[in-house]
Amino acid sequence: MTLFDHFFDLTDPGAALTDTALTDTTLVNTVVVEDQQLATLDRRLDRETPVTVINSTGAGGIPALARRTVNSCRVAAVQSSLRDPGDLVGNIARIAAAARELDPGVTLLVGIPDGYGWQQAVEAAEAEELVAVAGRISDEGLATRLSAFVEADLGFVVDGVDTIADLVGLAAAVDLLIDGPEIEAATKLLGGADHDQQLQAIKDWPVDRAGRVRRRLRSVRTRDLAGITAGLTRSGLLT
User: Fold this and answer.
1) How many C-beta atoms surround the C-beta of residue 13 within 10 A?
2) From the centroid of its chain, how far is CA 141?
3) Could you read off the pLDDT of 165-218 as tens digits, one per residue?
4) Comparing C-alpha atoms, which of 210, 151, 154, 211 is closest to residue 181?
5) What is the CA radius of gyration of the chain?
6) Which candidate, 91, 86, 62, 77, places its Cα nearest to that of 10?
7) DSSP SS3 for 29
8) Where do the structural domains in the chain lie, given as residue ranges?
9) CATH placement of domain 8-230
């Protein structure tokens, strides 16, 4: 697996229908869609397409999702949020139990909010073999989250990666954090520090180094796959 194989989740289902990059199955991981829009997207697609479904109704909505019938959409992942801030670990357990009704090949994603016990929730998510979702609230906040995920050996997805600078900084930061909890340095990388140097370094990564990053960073979510693809091509990261 190269760094960008099945790496991009498209967060605009409407654009995904006309995005020529959607036909390049080596780049696209899934199309992200709210559960309430799943049927609409399914009717509009003309080819089998892997999707990440955002579950809007808590753990109880997962069994219902497992029973839904779709034609073109292939549910590859389901994301649920932790709705009880006073019992994040208990939330993890309930979501994991509900997800046992899903096909074994479906990845279960979880958004872990800030608040008391979030570090324990990270550990619980890893124990249940879930995958975390992190947004780009701030560079320091994201670096702190990524460090905790890496330390717990919890795979993760990062949302809001819409430019080549976002992508290079994120990949470099994850690579750094694998070697140690250098949160301050990772924050700077996420903010675009040493962009050209990091870009060249990533181009020179051997397969095993790219692989260790991908084992943690499962995919990124973007609104602009065409722009990122063009940037990757111009920079020599994609040939």
Assistant:
1) 20
2) 16
3) 999 999 999 999 999 999 999 999 999 988 889 999 999 999 999 999 999 999
4) 151
5) 18
6) 77
7) strand
8) 8-230
9) 3.20.20
